[in-house]
Every structure is written in structure tokens, then in C-alpha cells.
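Re: [ENG-882] Designed sequences occasionally contain unexpected residues at chain ends

Forwarding the minimal case from QA. C-alpha cells:
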């Protein structure tokens, strides 16, 4: 009788494990299509808009939907002698259809990248002009059916340097910004109505205080979300971005919960969109 009971318990345990695996597999399949969204509207001729001496709000909106460039990026590019041609190139890349490959990067985490016809990673887009303190977001990473995404802060624009908490088990580290060009979804954000001097200070704080910090999956739950810098023991990708802004008085966590996520940062009203790629212009992360 005891053996029968043990056998039933073992069977139930196996069934539960298999159900969990099945649910996770289904969730992974469900979230996969939202990792990269190609615009489903037609390409427009934007050359006439680019000839306008003064752009209207409607002009900026059309350019955003056609190129993924926000007002700040458009204005900065139009100051260049070849800026109009560059914006046309942004349109071509923004409306292009990409091949996307999903691969594991950890025990439970997978990541998508843009690939060529041979399945090799490739760059899918060009960067809008960027500066220190700008924030980068992608939806490309997910774990166990949760599309949590990834975030970084630009700490040295001249060198193309970002600071990131890459994955569980590693400390935060400086990365080359070009790796982001292979993600099929991308957002570049900057604080609204803020001087570059302030953004430089935020980037410098991150550089001096957030490098080589252990990855902490439960920052804010098992430890303080906002400790003094001397007591910062761990961080994760979006907390690493949130923390330097918070030290300057900018709470860029949209919902203010214990866990700050890339989605929270993407939806913060304190940011304006500089550039998007592979996401819906109408709602970049619903």
C-alpha cells in the first residue's frame, strides 16, 4: 500500500512538472511575435516634408511613423548637410522586413537578434544621434514566458560606451553600443526638457558608482531599491538605469513598484522618444 501511494505521488509530481514545462513552452510561443513588430502601413514619400523650413506637429508625427525618429533626432539630423538623405535611409531600414532568430543566452533566458539569410547576426538599423545619459531599451530578451527586455545607459557617447547588467551571474560591465543594432526591437530615450549638463552628470554617476556591481535579481524585494551609493550591493539591468536618475531626483519607474523593469522605464512620462525600431509607434510597449 505504501509503495502504491509513493508511486501515485511520483506520478503526480511528474505530471505537474510536465504541465509546468508545457505552460512555459506555450507562453514562450505566445510572446514570441511581439518581440519584433514591422509597420503594417505603406511607405510614404517624406521628401516634401523634409523640404519644409518649419515642421508642424503633423510633420513630426509622419516622420516618426515612417522612420522611427523622434523630434529631437529629426531636428539634429536636419542640421547636417546630408541630414535629409540620412533620414531617407532611416525610413528604408525602419520599414524593412527582417529575419529574426531566437537563441538561449542563459539557463532560462532567450534573446532575439536580426540575422541575414545565412542565419548570422547582422545590424538592422542605424543610430540616431545619441549623447551621454540617453537610455536604451529592447524587448528582445525573455525568460519563462515573461518578455522582460533589457536596458542600458550611455555613459560615454564619444566612445560608444554603455553600462549594462548583462545577465544573472555576472557583474555590471561596459559594453559597445553597436551590439544594440542587432536587436530586432529598440528604443532610445532621453529626459524631457533637461540640459545635457544634467545628463552628463547622471552618466558620470553611473560610470563611477554602478560598474562592476553584482547582478541582483530581487533588488527592491530582498534589499533596498534605493540605498545610498555606499550600500549598493547589487543591481539588474533596469535598476542600473533607474538608480542614477533617481539620485538626481528623477523617478523614471512608471508604476513605482519594488521592481523596476525595462517596460516601466519605456513608459515613463519623464522620457521622450529619440528613436524606435521594431516596435509600434502608436504604443511602443503596451
Amino acid at each position: 500500500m505504501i509503495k502504491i501511494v509513493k508511486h501515485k505521488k511520483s506520478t503526480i509530481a511528474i505530471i505537474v512538472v510536465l504541465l509546468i514545462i508545457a505552460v512555459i513552452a506555450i507562453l514562450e510561443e505566445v510572446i514570441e511575435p511581439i518581440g519584433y513588430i514591422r509597420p503594417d502601413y505603406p511607405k510614404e514619400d517624406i521628401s516634401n516634408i523634409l523640404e519644409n523650413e518649419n515642421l508642424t506637429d503633423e510633420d513630426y508625427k509622419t516622420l516618426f511613423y515612417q522612420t522611427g525618429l523622434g523630434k529631437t533626432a529629426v531636428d539634429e539630423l536636419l542640421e547636417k548637410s546630408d541630414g535629409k538623405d540620412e533620414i531617407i535611409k532611416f525610413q528604408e531600414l525602419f520599414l524593412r522586413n527582417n529575419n529574426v532568430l531566437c537563441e538561449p543566452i542563459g539557463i532560462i533566458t532567450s534573446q532575439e537578434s536580426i540575422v541575414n539569410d545565412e542565419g548570422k547576426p547582422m545590424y538592422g538599423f542605424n543610430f540616431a544621434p545619441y549623447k551621454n545619459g540617453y537610455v536604451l531599451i529592447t524587448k528582445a530578451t525573455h525568460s519563462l514566458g515573461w518578455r522582460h527586455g533589457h536596458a542600458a545607459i550611455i555613459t560615454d557617447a564619444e566612445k560608444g560606451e554603455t553600462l549594462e547588467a548583462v545577465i544573472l551571474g555576472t557583474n555590471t560591465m561596459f559594453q559597445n553600443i553597436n551590439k544594440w543594432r542587432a536587436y530586432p526591437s529598440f528604443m532610445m530615450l532621453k529626459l524631457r526638457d533637461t540640459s545635457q549638463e544634467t545628463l552628463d552628470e547622471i552618466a558620470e554617476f553611473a560610470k563611477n558608482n554602478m560598474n562592476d556591481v553584482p547582478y541582483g535579481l530581487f533588488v527592491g524585494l530582498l534589499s533596498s531599491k534605493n540605498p545610498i551609493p555606499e550600500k549598493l550591493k547589487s543591481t539588474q539591468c533596469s535598476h542600473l538605469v533607474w538608480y542614477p536618475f533617481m539620485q538626481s531626483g528623477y523617478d523614471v519607474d512608471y508604476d513605482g513598484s519594488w521592481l523596476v523593469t525595462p517596460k516601466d522605464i519605456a513608459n515613463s512620462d519623464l522620457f521622450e522618444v529619440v528613436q524606435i525600431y521594431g516596435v509600434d509607434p502608436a504604443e511602443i510597449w503596451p
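QA comment: On inspection the terminal residues look reasonable. The longest strand covers residues 109-115. Proposing we downgrade this to a documentation issue.
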